[in-house]
Amino acid sequence: MTQKIVITLKPLLHRERPQIGIYFGFNNHVKDQVKAYQGVKWSKTHRIFYVEDSNINRAELFKYLNQFGYWVDYSAIKNTMLPKAQPIQTNKLDKVGMYKELPQTHQDKLKRYIDYLRGKRLSDSTIKSYGYFILRFLHYHKDVMVNSWTNEHIDLFMENVLAKEHYSISSHRQSVGAIKYFTELCGMAAFDASGFERPKKSKFLPVVLSKEEVIDILQATKNLKHRAVLALIYSSGLRIGELLNMELKDIDIDRSQVHIKNGKGRKDRTVVLSEVIKPLLYNYIQTYKPQRYFVEGAPGEPYTAGSVRQFLRKACDEAGIKKRVTPHTLRHSYATHMLENGVDLRFIQELLGHSKPETTMIYTHVAQKDLMKVQSPLDVTVDQITKSNKGEQKLLLSRNFK
């Protein structure tokens, strides 16, 4: 009977940061599999592989190594509290720091503003964004009495905060919306932003990946969970927030549908689930066994957008892609490839969940049965590559399922 290989996980302090040390006897096969895990690095000082100590890595690293049949001893980290990482010092105050520096009158006004936005039934993401800009405004004018604000204070904030800190046009537009609601709440004649205009939207074309680049990214993503996330974002044209909030029950594999609940604009919609992605999803779900959400950090808890951006950047580096790629780039690419594949623009607008279609499309009604006939661009791309291989083995995203 072959004895199982033992891999031991222990706490490690490296470069003044908490890490997880990965200890095992010399074995090239094990070494290659450990190196393939997202974020693993080699320490010349300690002569071991390690990865950042986090709740996500504690759970995922164990599952990842366990799937290969290794005996994973994680007793050294199982019952230890996660060390608190020291915050990186910057010149900018964080939100908590700014809030603590506000006088009580300003803190009360911010709380009232958040309640006001909730009463307007704005989305949580909008309230978060608007609340941040008003926090910045209040912090910038923390020495000014609440009843003394005028439109000149708005101008000073935009000139000395938004402009000098090089906020994007889209952020500037958001700040104007936030301040309009704020002055509406305050109800002072000299402090009225209703006449303020938002700067015009930028006309930059979105970054779009080629079909081959998408496949390169997916194949360069060694971690099964990460590959499933990126494949689902692209193949169904999801926003990052939609992916993170998606529950397992929202994916209907038998009917090849993905149900998106409470998307942007509080709209539900249904999109196509790629046929090619199904084996990958089966493999991922059986390996990681998520409890509620499609992708989870701690069991039963949603993942974070920052984590997705991080492993997407690493995948692009591995694939040699120099473009500035974000999760939304995959969504842009989905729409562009659909159009290139001959899908009607009306269908694409419906599948993307756009609230304002072009004027020429305003009266167009897209039947759900027609939408479900639309083929995912991932299926089309894999089919094209397979045909170009002239009978060679079909391209698979997952090694364990056909």
Automatic annotation (TrEMBL):
Domain Tyr recombinase: 204-376
Keyword DNA-binding on entry: yes
Gene Ontology BP annotations: DNA integration; DNA recombination
A Pfam short name: Phage_integrase
InterPro entries the record matches: CB (IPR044068), DNA_brk_join_enz (IPR011010), Integrase-like_cat_sf (IPR013762), Integrase_catalytic (IPR002104), Integrase_recombinase_N (IPR010998), Integrase_SAM-like_N (IPR004107), Tyrosine_recombinase_XerCD (IPR050090)
Sequence ranges assigned to domain Core-binding (CB) in this UniProt record: 104-187
Highest taxon listed in the record's lineage: Bacteria
Keyword Oxidoreductase: no
SUPFAM superfamilies: DNA breaking-rejoining enzymes
Alphabetically ordered keywords of this record: DNA integration, DNA recombination, DNA-binding
Gene Ontology MF terms: DNA binding
Family recorded in the similarity comment: Belongs to the 'phage' integrase family.
Protein name: Integrase
Species annotation: Paucihalobacter ruber
Taxonomic lineage: Bacteria, Pseudomonadati, Bacteroidota, Flavobacteriia, Flavobacteriales
